[in-house]
Design a protein that fits this description.
With 316 residues, the chain is mainly alpha-helical. The chain has helices spanning 36-43, 61-75, 86-104, 117-129, 134-150, 173-185, 188-195, 201-212, 216-220, 253-269, 281-315, and strands at 234-238, 245-249.
Length: 316
Amino acid sequence: MKTIAVQKQIPLGALPIPAANVDLFRRDTGIDHLSRGLAQAVRRVQPMPQELRPNLQGMPLMMQIATLWKAYERFSLRLEPRADDANQRLRLRRIARLYQDLQTVGCGLIQADGLRERHARLLLKSWRERGKAVATIRSDWSILRVWCLALGKAGMISPLENYWPDAPKAVAPGEARAQKRLEWHRNPQILAMLLRGRDPTHWFVERLCGDLGLTVEEALAFSPDMASQYLDGRLLIRAPRHQDFRTIPVGSHEQVLLVQEIQAFMSERRRRRLMWPDISPLEARRKHENHLAYQRRKLEASEECGSGQASEGGSE
């Protein structure tokens, strides 16, 4: 009878994952004359020496991972591991998931140090086929390369571009946050709700943020002086609590119309700035953010109600 091997899911187990005792009495050899910062810089690019690797014989895979990482963390002069160290727990969980992903594609390992370059290639292939976000792939690949140092296998896995030459470039954290903010300000459902509201101020603030890239603070402080050169294709923006200026391009017909609408609104309400005249800039910002939060809650409630009615209709 033919025996069929069945892959079992690797349990992550409770975190922090227990690790065996680690003795690195020689860990400062060669760097004891350096400052801690320089010693860290030296050690963090070095693989764990074979003679300092702990004995993993007979340990479950998760304990092997925890013990190896504990040893490498001390060798590389990172923060000393603590039972309540959230960063350490997250790192161990992410390393464990690398082995879980391997098991999913039929390459389950029972020894942590059995990892090879071909496994990295399989992981990358699997991640791309599953549509994993590029930013997440880059982050996991970085974890994988650091883990190779803990395994004593420096250089075994090359940078991501060696395996995926046309991989999209990583978006800088600041750019990603800015893009996310634009998406919030451009939400068509929220904009429609604001447009129907009694006070157009909120709608104009969101339009300035979404269409022209102003911050909420800058939009609330919008004044005729800032708009004085919009017909020349630019706005001169100054945050209310800062003296420095920046220029915002006004290129499209829609952007020009938006500025004209805001000017007419401010003239009608006799405002020197777009924000409400009887409160401070900080109070105005809170008022706007609270109003947006209220509108989002209304939108979420209406969506939940709609999905509930659809479910009831489908069950009849």
